[in-house]
Specification:
single chain; 171 residues; two-stranded antiparallel ribbon
Length: 171
């Protein structure tokens, strides 16, 4: 089932990014993660990548809406697309390119994006940590689709959630 939340976004790209991120923060767990000596919110890292992808690579000439849907066990992002290639995108066949170079440059000048392909590599690095080892699904067809599986109460070390308490005392 879907969460009972919706935000129809029809505004400029900067406001759209802020509203997409706010929607994700409101409706997804944080998934705190320690990387070396830095604490990261994997929710923020992953959703930043998919929200930027949604805005930068959207086919704005098409009359189809882009969608970010949060399900109880995965996030799905769908954009209408003029495919560069067809099929699943993996790290082995990744060929980064900007579908909207002016928009990509705009977000790059603001410091919100770095290099092409970084988002895909981040998804493959971090999604297994929030999903019990599952990989993201990135598919390029007439629709560009990204599916991020997750376990809602994954702990900070990426272990499966425990159903029973680990420390139990009996009287």
């Amino acid at each position: 089932d879907l969460y009972d939340a919706r935000d129809l976004i029809h505004c400029n790209l900067l406001r759209a990014y802020d509203r997409l991120m706010a929607f994700c923060r409101q409706n997804l767990p944080e998934w705190p993660y320690i990387d070396g000596d830095q604490r990261k919110s994997l929710r923020d890292v992953l959703m930043r990548e998919v929200c930027m992808n949604l805005l930068i690579h959207a086919e704005y000439g098409a009359r189809h809406e882009s969608k970010l849907t949060i399900w109880k066990d995965h996030v799905e992002v769908v954009n209408w697309n003029i495919p560069y290639g067809y099929g699943l995108i993996t790290l082995d066949n990744l060929r980064p390119h900007a579908k909207n170079p002016a928009i990509a440059n705009f977000f790059s000048q603001l410091g919100l994006v770095e290099e092409l392909g970084r988002g895909t590599r981040a998804l493959y690095e971090y999604v297994p940590k929030i999903s019990g080892g599952q990989k993201p699904v990135i598919e390029e067809m007439d629709e560009f689709k990204v599916v991020i599986p997750y376990v809602e109460n994954m702990d900070i070390m990426g272990n499966e959630p425990q159903n029973e308490p680990q420390n139990e005392t009996q009287n």
